[in-house]
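Batch manifest line 1083
LIGAND: FE2/S2 (inorganic) cluster
JOB: complex structure
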Amino acid sequence: MSVADLVKTFTFYEILVGMKATITVFIQRIILRNRKAITLQYPHEKRDLPGSYRGMIALLKYDDGVEKCVGCDLCEAACPSRVITVISAEVEGEPAKRYAKEYYMDMTRCLFCGLCVDACPVDALAMTKEYEWARYNKRDLRLDKPQLLALGDRNFPVREKKLEFQHPNVAYFNIGHKNLPHKAS
Amino acid sequence: MAEMVTILIDGKPIEVEKGTLVIEAARRIGVMIPHFCYHPKLKPDANCRMCLVEVEKMPKLQTSCSTVVAEGMVVRTNTPVVDEAHKSVLEFILANHPLDCPICDQGGRCDLQDFSHRYTPTGSQFTDTKRVYEKGFFSPLIEKEMNRCVSCLRCVRYCDEIMDVKALANAARSTMTEIVHFAGHPLDCEFCGGCVQICPVGAITSRLSMYEFRPWMMKRADTTCGYCGDGCSLILETRGEKVIEVMSSHGNGRNNGDLCAKGFFGYQYVNHEDRLTTPLVRQADGNLHPVTWDEVLPVLAERLTQIKLAHGADAIGGLISARCTNEDLYLFQKFMRLAIGSNHLDSTARYGHVNAARALRRVQGTNRWTVSYEDIVQADALLLIGTQVTAANPIVGLKVKEAVKKHGATLLTLETLVPSIETTSNITNLSALHVAVPPGRHAAAVRGLVKAAFDENLVDAALSSRAGDYVSRIRAAATALPYPEGLDEAALRAVAKAFAGARRGVILIGQDLLQAPGGHESAVNLLDFLLLLGKLTQPGWGLAPLTEENNEQGAVEMGATAEYLPGPADVGDAAARTQIAGAWKDQPPASQGMHLLEMLDAARAGTLKAMLIVGENPVRSLPLSAKAASALEKLDLLVVQELFLTETAKLADVVLPACSYAEKTGTFTNSEGFVQKVRPGLEPVGDSRPDWEILSSLSVMMGYPLEYGDAKEILKEIRAVIPGYRVLGAKPEPAQVAAKSVEQYLTRGFAEDLPARYSAGAAPKANSHRWALAVGQTLFHSGAMSTKAQGLLELQHEGKLIMNPADAQRLGIADGDRVRLTSTSGEATVPVTMLGRIPEGTLFFPESFREALAGLPSMTPDPVTGVPYCKQLRVSVDKVGTGGASSGPPPARIAGGK
Ligand code: SF4
Ligand code: SF4
Ligand code: SF4
Ligand code: SF4
Ligand code: SF4
Ligand code: FES
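JOB STATUS: finished
ARTIFACT:
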């Protein structure tokens, strides 16, 4: 053991390093009597959230108001906590076009890991910065499609433009076919 | 024993039969060579180039799906060169493939997806625009998305090679290849779903389940089809409470992965909204009201007990559908015989199959086929008599097609259909010799065959010396008759000769023969025919009656008919009674039971007071003239266990909701005698219960507990009681012709009804009604159940009378016009369509829509077997109106026709 190590051992150097923030604040606030408040008066005051904040999840729409989700079920497959249930079907009036007829998220189980957002092939999901979602009844945290779309509408006022025909070399899907019969239900 | 060769694949030696393809040899040692166009069912086509491998001493890479193994061959499937080749083939395919995976129903079980993952060809050197096909209408049940097609032509080849339908073809060339059907109308094929299943990508998918699933969400249940007697293995794929789709797997089951429209598209009745979910009881106001099981069962048990005490056990009768499982059937007859104590019970095998079962038992000692599907495929002569095989028993139809197309068997047909080129396959197109037999004349044709055996000198010499009396008396009886009028004599003789000359031959008989007057005698006569040729006891030869319902064979073997105890054994057979009494620890009643028609008569006469009907709807199955409804109304107590509120259930005092086959555990016995598992894919719908469970709880409340923990316990008892069920599984022992019983038949048995069997029968009554109308199975429907399946209704939603185009032209009738049919007992007005396969002067009507015929058919019961014959009749035809609203699907569906 070198001399430096011995000194560190006897002066509790590592502990001091670990308590750097505590000691600094202690010195500033208590010893130097610098009384600038750092506690936020929540809920009257709120913090600025970083851009990567992972809050409530929302479903998005295109600029023309059409839901982006194509009901592919991939978010459901990606979610590690089985939060999502997608019930996909043909679009009413546009046979052979797929969408999520029903879409549920049981937010009581969500880890806010964002895997669903990553999985979505059409960027239909996004994480908002909403967090004040305490509820008396946990059933209220099972969100359905209108609620999730509303979350999207409130948090993302600027919507992505819908390409009528995506570049044929990139993707070609979900263009409705008017000349197909409707599916028998 | 086939010659073996040894080859080396990726360093591993393997010995395979000569002629094996490299790709198959590799699969056997677990090396999966990627492929699209190869399929073990189809002939090699080697068009996709995906399966390239390196073979030592060959300069270029070889397609393993078309390269045959050779001694000492050294194959490598995973070298950098091979990988590079696979990658570039994929790159070519992906150059035109859309990024559809998120909305493609194949996603998650797609070969192209899997291979793309495996070879990760992330970049592409192609900058051209992808091909885009204009979307067109294809069919109400099958969806095609040609942008996703990899042009492997599996669908086209399947439809041609296996189905013989040839509905699909490839049009245009190279990358613009497109799969098309005959233009101008929607796809009009057999809808077997084979193309949907065999397409390696999502280019052909089912519209019924479209977008409702991802493969990983579904629960799978390996079970057996509940429609016809072919007994196909299928996989019910369910999500939650709903059946999403049906699949099958190659190499599995008696059907080897093939299905028909009923099996593949006919599953939706299970989730039909009209399913009964609670017990219903008729209350003071005369209507049926829902009640709970706890309320209904004790009351019902008490009423049954009261009736039994007041009028004796013989005042109670029972009827069960042969669509129930063996366990249901077995417990039903045990319940009737022990808990009730009555022998008055019957099953729907009465509608025809008992004719065949009885004949087989009488001559060969076993009611089972002595041949199997393999024998059909291997046969070199097949004789089809009144089978309508493609419509009624589609998978046996495929076996026949395989025998003819792959193995060059000689097909001989005595059918009502005539050869014609149409959009669906027609088995008579494949026949080497065809005799057109009008409805109701099959029995006469069979007598003609026996006569021909003598006239052509086909009788086995050994038999003549061994059983001279038998041969001479049959000769006298058969040759005394003239050849049936109106049938081609020369052709009949040629058929007999061709059949006798074969090395292995199977006679298949179907409903046109068995459900017509003389059905029972004809089956015996055909056994005479086989005996006379000296073939009945030869391996590979036999008589194979096809069954219409999935478990008619089981119904007979479980003893669910008045005349048979489980086995089947005759009710009067002392040895069998002792044996069964030992197993049951109680004696079955000794009285001679009544069959269905007799029970109805007794009900009408007031001697039968109560009936328990399980899953059958005699009011609909029997023609109006049988007056089933009025007979059932006279009963003091009618109990019906059903899926739906049928015509019969509407008359009932108590209706109990039963489970469909998709919710049950049990077994079905197919027509060739294979006992196959039924496994539940769903929880029981509503409060419904399996039929056996209902009977079991009733028996407990009636103080005669027949208690079983589950269906398996019943099967255990069945296996102890019935010899044919001892060895179950994939390879049961085939039934053997019992020498003793043949001997008995040859010496004495044959003589009992000899004159009756070889009499010309009543000549078709000459009356003013000159059209022969046959009511029968169609490809898309079976019974009433299928008319609750939305998918099948898309294909056929109403009963149309089918007539020959030439007849229609003569009468000035166009497709969709309505005609009035008049018979001696009534009249009906129905729409008409045309098919060239229906011979001139003949009409055909689909059995599943028979209510449209209402009072038209009359009924003659078989004097011996009690089978009600009501499927052939003579009618007059008058045109009453031109096409109307109800003809064909709404025009919107055909728009855009491509
Ligand atoms: S954030 Fe994670 S846990 Fe929450 S729904 Fe998405 S995938 Fe599931
Ligand atoms: S992954 Fe996206 S498109 Fe697919 S179901 Fe989920 S939200 Fe919809
Ligand atoms: S066919 Fe396969 S690769 Fe093509 S879109 Fe469908 S799932 Fe994806
Ligand atoms: S539709 Fe499917 S099976 Fe037919 S050629 Fe195309 S990819 Fe092959
Ligand atoms: S109806 Fe018959 S042929 Fe068709 S799938 Fe079912 S068992 Fe097989
Ligand atoms: S699988 Fe061999 S060429 Fe297609």
